Amino acid sequence: MQEQYNFTEIEQKWQDHWDQTKMFKKTEDPDKEKYYLLEMFPYPSGKLHMGHVRNYSIGDVIARHLTMKGKNVLHPMGWDSFGLPAENAAIKHGTAPAIWTRENIAEMREQLKTLGISYDWDREVATCQPDYYRWMQWIFIKFFEKGLAYKKKNPVNWCPSCQTVLANEQVVDGECERCHSAVGKKDLDQWYLKITDYADRLLTDLETLDGWPTKVKTMQKNWIGKSTGAEVDFAIKDFDKDLRIFTTRADTLFGVTYMVLAPEHPYVKDLVSGTDYEKSTADFMDRLQYMTDIERTSTTLEKEGIFIGRYAINPMNGKEVPIYIANYVLMDYGTGAIMAVPAHDQRDFEFAIKYNLPIIPVIDPKNPEIDLYNLKEAFEAEGDLINSEQFNGKNNVVAIDEFIAFLEEKKIGTKTTNFRLRDWLISRQRYWGTPIPMIYCEHCGWVAEKFENLPVLLPTDVEFTGKGESPLATSKTFQNTTCPTCGGPAKRELDTMDTFLDSSWYFLRYTDAKNENAPWDKEKSDYWMPVDQYIGGVEHAILHLLYARFFNKFLFDLGLCPSSEPFKNLLTQGMVLKDGTKMSKSKGNVVSPEEIINQYGADTARLFILFASPPEKELEWSDAGVEGSYRFLNRVYRLVSELADETKDAADTYKVDSADDKELAFVLNSTIKKVTEDLGTRFNFNTAISSIMILVNELYKYKEIEQRNKALLKYSINCLILLLSPFTPHICEEMWAGLGHKESAYAESWPSVDEKALVKDEVEVVIQINGKVKDKITVANGLSKEEFLELAMKNDAVSALTEGKTILKVIPVPGKLINIVIK
RNA sequence: GCGCGCGUGGCGGAAUUGGCAGACGCACUAGAUUUAGGUUCUAGCGGUAACCCCGUGCAGGUUCAAGUCCUGUCGUGCGCACCA
């Protein structure tokens, strides 16, 4: 074993070794318990950042630890390689997106390899490759066949400067994330996936996800936003159609004083046509047209509306109430129309005050401080019903169901559930994405491409202007085709898919990444799925995780995967910060992983990141902390190289001879216990590492004593290396080999705890008076309460302090402390 | 505005079940080794001159005992934000 810790040489050597021996290649093995460990795959931007290093280091610790514990660990890696940056590079520099992406992947794969993560590289996938997106198209067609993919004309986000549609997530504070111009609306024919069909299951199954952080589940729950209520029909005076509204507050029906329609509501035109209100309505709508969604739906925006000259009739009491249109009612939620109850809804209240509309209370708060007929704000809490005829006197919450039953009986309303979740707009007017495998035929309408013609390849003869329609329209060969049904002339869809689709099923493809006849083999996904542990940033808490759950459920329904949820456990890692803020180019506080690895080695980088903070928490980068980790690895290396010779011929099993031996055996076994627990159940890598540091300190002390037990020393350093090996794999393999072991450290099984070594002869206990520590004494282990009490009372500090006082109570906790309460 | 999380030394953090607050590391101080610097080693390191004592954002409460549980409050971070 070399005396110097030469990380550059060591890391290269072992990376090559793992590569050549295919150490981490895994196959299905029914005799072994499987464990599917997955880290969110990266977008291949070309450079690894610290967030990646953190994500993959965390994963690798778990993977290597469980491998040593005998599990069959699947640990794959791939590339989420479709997306805007590649296309932007094409527009800017003229490089083909495929080439740009391929080069980035190659660069990033090399960087990942320098980190020494235990991936099964044989399962690598890249979503931009035809062998992957072919199956993406196949899945899309399954959605289409099941009626879950449809095309609809709808107002979508439109950037007037880039001349393209933007996804909601690409609209930041009402501006285009690329050019910062204000985003408007445009009516476009787009493909949607019917995720709303799965809304209920996506919501209720959250409860089964015990291994997910509550925060993420709550975010998903709010995003899905289920609310139960009723749809109620209001007749419109002198109009042949009823106005249907949605409300969660059927109990307040008698408090309705006006109605509001969304300005886009289909009735509006007919209601004002040929009346005195036609012009004012048109003017109002013109003004709204120029507002972005963000502005329109901002709570800070003042509520604004106009009366459209019509009246609706309250079905409960026949009262006529005016109909308004207003900016605060949205067309795409519920029915796009509401009943307004200003007394019990703050939004309606503000609107009523502004336009001087009546406010009728129907719930009595039973609070003398609230003047019901002169409200300062809407009363939204519980109370007893008033002004509500036969419902008077009932608790309003209880009465909701009675109201709904009444409505249903009279056939003027039905119990209804609404979701905040909308269908998923997946069309993108972009080049670098999976082509939507649909064909439009004049005779047959929208028809899916035939299976044998998949993949529908991305054409290469396109122009990138960054403007107008999808670049696929500029291809001379792509658009014109024949109809798969009738054989007549037909045109291909020119839009591509949102890249979130690609990442919604990659975890299934990993189970059988090279399959050419199916997206994956059912038996293989049955063996590996679900993912036992998923690790990634919390920024994916809603979209990616919701979409992936949706896909998995759909594929589960098709019988293609064994569980209806894809990810059993989820770990959301915290951000990597520098100087208290997120690392970013614009702030100039980016620390490059490449530089750190060159300067200190991957093991040091990994150790620092894992030691500095628990994985869910934010991590503050510290150059001094990195130095410290480097120092520790040198200290371990020195220790092992100094002891390698001395322990070379020692026996493999040890006997405890002295008090020093006993102490070392105790520290060693507590460390094994602590590291095993921290790695296996808590994922608290920082405390696991600190306990290994304590073991190292103990070994340095032991090394200096005269009567050294060589067998115990040998066993201890072997364990030390194995315990450290999930964190810093290269140096550990090197030290392991340096001790004369022929096999890799990862072929070794994880050290087990000798419980006997954890039992001490003597323990230190605390003596408290009135809950304050006064003394500490060392007593024999396993003392009874009585013996313990007797010893404590004899203690000098106790006698001094209790003299002349009354002892009220004594609470002995054997093995820990005794508390004497005096007065 | 609503929901969720977090407040512990100079810093990152530990205290898993209510039972010794500050493990481990960084920074710092002193000493040893070294021609010197670095490395390495030893010791110290919440406040206080000091023992007593005081100390986990603040104010209360429960308990023999509270960083941990309860109530209120302030600060901070994240998410959602007119969803009827």
SSE arrangement:
Elements: H1 7-21, E1 34-39, H2 50-68, E2 72-74, E3 78-79, H3 84-93, H4 97-115, E4 125-126, H5 130-145, E5 149-159, E6 164-165, E7 171-172, E8 175-176, E9 184-193, H6 199-204, H7 214-224, E10 226-236, E11 243-247, E12 258-261, H8 267-272, H9 278-289, H10 293-296, E13 305-313, E14 320-326, E15 337-340, H11 346-354, E16 363-364, E17 384-385, H12 396-409, E18 413-419, E19 424-425, E20 427-428, E21 438-441, E22 445-448, E23 480-482, E24 489-492, E25 496-497, H13 499-502, H14 506-509, H15 522-528, E26 533-537, H16 543-557, E27 570-573, E28 576-578, E29 581-582, H17 593-600, H18 602-611, E30 619-620, H19 623-647, H20 659-682, H21 685-703, H22 710-724, H23 729-738, E31 762-769, E32 772-780, H24 785-794, H25 796-802, E33 807-813, E34 817-822
Parallel strand pairs: 1-2, 1-26, 3-4, 12-14, 26-27, 28-30, 31-34
Antiparallel strand pairs: 5-6, 5-9, 7-8, 9-19, 10-11, 10-13, 10-18, 12-15, 13-14, 16-17, 20-25, 21-22, 21-24, 23-24, 28-29, 31-32, 33-34
Helix pairs in contact: 1-23, 2-18, 3-4, 17-18, 18-19, 19-21, 19-22, 20-21, 20-22, 21-22, 22-23
This protein binds one RNA strand of 84 nucleotides through helix 7, strand 11, strand 15, helix 11 and strand 30.
